[in-house]
Amino acid sequence: MKHIRLIDIITNEIAPLAPTDTIQDGLNLMSSSSISSVVVADEQNRPLGIFTENDTLKIISQHYDKSMQLQEVMTQNVFCLDASLNLHDAYILLEQKGYRHLIVVDAEGTYIGVVSEGDFLRNLGFEDAFQSKAVEDVMQEAPLMVKENSLIVTAAKMMNENKTSFVIVVDDMNPVGILSEKEITHFLANKNIESKETIESLDYLSAILIRPVISLKEASAMMKSHGVHQLIVVNEENRMIGILDRHDVLKAIHGAYFNYLINVIDKKNDTLLELEASKELLATTSALLNNVINTIPDLIWLKDTHGIYLKCNHVFERFFGAKESEIVGKSDFDFVDQELAEFFRKNDKKAIENGGPSGNEEYLKFADGSYEGLFYAMKTPLKDEENNIIGVLGIAHDITKHRADEDNLKQIDDALNEAQAMAHVGSWQLNIQENSFTASDEGCRIFGLNPKTEKISAQTIRALIHPDDLAEFIRKHDEGVLEGKYNHIYRIVVDGKIKWIHAFSSSVTDESGTFKKMKGILKDITKQKLYEEQLEKLANYDSLTGLANREVLLSHLRKSIQNATKNNQSLALLHFDLDDFKNINDSFGHNIGDEILKMATERLSEHIGITDFIARIGGDEVAIILEDVAN
Fold it and tell me: CA torsion 436→439→445→446, rounded to 10°?
């Protein structure tokens, strides 16, 4: 990868337009300057939006007036990158965002220029890295086609609907050229949207034909030499079988580069010793590792299998009273007395022998005198890709306060202690006589309550219950008072969001058996409920069309028959399939077949009544139940 920045490849020196400039101004600028986009900026030259050739298709499709201001049609909240960004990092962002243009700004956010896919293709390099890749490996099948005598406006609308930047122009199904957004933009800059001119009146690019077996490197060179973004792929009989787009080549170049790097690294790793391999692994992640482990307040260290230190964090440096550079390469015997060092070594070996995590308590005194206390040390064997132990990772957490708090924990109310021990979830108590409600931190979080800022009563809790569940909630509570316990699932509404709660409770009585209060635990089972709903949807509805499946149809049909019989009404069951659907899949591919199937079911759905029912029961088969048929 060339070590260049965005600022080094910016070629667009076209000044940005103002948001009050018109669509016609934008079209004229792109047409006259042969650019694919213009940036819209404010008076301080800060980007506000971008107007691209792709917007031309939307203008035609939606019949926008070309006198409209750019701020009404431009893409806003634009994604801008600093000019100092590395070319490789910028391309990754371009690919992740699915953009074809990146706006480049300086450190103050002032507009500098635009980089496009073409700029990346010219500057990424690595043509040799994908020499072995052929066109057929990355080409697109079933491109969009139009006839030469088609209206230009019609072609633009097709491109917009199919989200493509070009169409293949054919004459008697033979490719003769490529009509792209650029030609559409030039046309619209000089013509009205309602123009009846046909494609053959345009100076569109001639078709450049290639075979699927040629290399991507050769195809890329052809694109550059002919100044085109697409090449038409044909078979031995010169029949079109696909299209190679510049975007496909760019992705292949970048992918081939990473594959090349991976192969180089794999070959190098094969020649290194185990210790050198582990050190290299640590070196490649040292920056991230340092940032992570040095923000953790625990002691963290890494040793090899012989007890030699390989890494540690800042807190561990304080324990030994030495810098990491002074610790690495040495053992415990260089920093602590022999008895403690042998204790550390014994527990390291225990973790290695167990092949898994091993914990023990250790009382540690920091060498700088800043702290001493009881720590719980967890030591875990570090393994390579072949499951061989290559070291021990240690983390020591300060439990001094935790140990001191254990005595206080014994004095906590028995009810709360029971609830926490049973489920590790929110616990609560409801005192009817005092009209008070108390809960653990988790319980308050689930209910969205803050006991520090508000008084919580039984009415507070009831106000959170979903209206549809309130009556059953009260009945269950009263039943629990009488029977001594209850187990209930209900909904609450917190900050406008619905939560599902599973509550368990038992009653507390005094020595005479008189009811005093309710205590219990509660769980937030919202995620579980949502997952159950998703499973039900997956089981009952077709993932492609969103229609009900055969099982739901049969269930609905049984109910419809019962209702029709009961009300002395008629119903109809219609069965449809798509003629020659297999030919569509075979000729144009399953993706096109899926789109046609979705369009067909959408149109059927639009023409049935609100009481009627539609379901997909097979590959291209659809059934419809018509309720209350009069004729």
Answer: -90
Q: What is the 3-state secondary structure (H, E, C) of 575-589?
A: EEECCCHHHHHHHHC
Q: Residue 414 and residue 546: Cα distance in Å, rounded?
A: 52
How far apart (Å, rounded) are the C-alpha atoms in residues 230 and 506?
73
Let me know: does 39 contact 16? Beta carbons within 8 Å: yes
Q: 490: Cβ–Cβ under 8 A, 6 or more apart, which residues?
A: 465, 466, 469, 472, 473, 476, 500, 501, 503
Identify residue 175 by its one-letter amino acid code.
Answer: P
Prediction pTM value: 0.42
Q: What is the pLDDT of residues 412-466, one digit of tens each?
A: 655 554 544 354 578 888 887 777 888 888 888 888 888 888 888 878 888 889 9
Cα–Cα distance between 512 and 10 in angstroms, integer? 87
Cα 249 from Cα 441, distance rounded (Å):
56
Picking from 228, 237, 235, the residue whose alpha carbon sits closest to that of residue 136 is: 235
Q: DSSP characters for 277-296?
A: HHHHHHHHTHHHHHHHHTTS
SS3 111: strand
Q: Dump strand ranges (E) for 193-295.
A: 205-206, 209-210, 230-234, 240-245
Beta bridge partners of 106: none
Coil vs helix vs strand at 173: coil
Q: Is 434 exposed, middle or buried (0-12, 13-18, 19+ CB in 10 A)?
A: exposed
